[in-house]
Amino acid sequence: MTGHPGIFAGGDMVPAERTVTVAIGHGKQASRHIDAWLASRRHEPPPPHELATFDKLNTWYYSDAPKTVAPTLDLVRRQSTFDEVHGALDEKTAGYEARRCLSCGNCFECDNCYGICPDNAVIKLGPGQRYEFNYDYCKGCGLCVSECPCGAIKQVPEEI
Ligand SMILES: Cc1cc2nc3c(=O)[nH]c(=O)nc-3n(C[C@H](O)[C@H](O)[C@H](O)COP(=O)(O)OP(=O)(O)OC[C@H]3O[C@@H](n4cnc5c(N)ncnc54)[C@H](O)[C@@H]3O)c2cc1C
What we know:
Blueprint: H1 20-38, H2 75-78, H3 91-98, H4 112-116, E1 122-124, E2 131-133, H5 143-147
Antiparallel strand pairs: 1-2
Residues 11-13, 18-21, 23 line the site of flavin-adenine dinucleotide.
């Protein structure tokens, strides 16, 4: 939110890196703050989770996917046209490229923890809502932690 209550700004309008990625990130943040503002709440972003290092990932889960090559204009053609030299990816290939992301530390709801839990302690909260753990059922076997592909689950000792 800007200094004027109820007016929000982001992207190229605010001092930041002027890239599409930053503008999209600002849009995401702004939408959460606008939603809270309209409901007379204050949006408190959750604390950032720990970095998922490579040893926390289960790379077997992901299929090999070579990176997409963006089209490039032939050297000779560059001398005779004003066409873009470095072409963009089309919708299909951009989607494929995005799906190569390992989602390090960010749950993408693959259901591995849900499927593997021997105690039915993992509760699905619905699309986009991820999971909850029922600690009355959980015996702390740690299978969900070791089988999570992206290192999004952390096991901590129970507080007594
Ligand atoms: C030539 C060029 C190449 C670039 N290449 C890259 C690149 O390769 N990669 C990259 O990440 N970034 C690139 N950028 C930067 C990127 O385009 C911007 O950072 C990004 O578009 C910013 O998004 P935005 O939504 O903040 O603003 P914009 O995309 O500028 O959107 C603002 C919108 O508001 C509209 N608007 C303005 N005034 C009003 C008004 N009074 N009423 C209603 N509507 C209004 C405008 O028409 C526009 O549609 C490039 C920028 C330029 C100029």
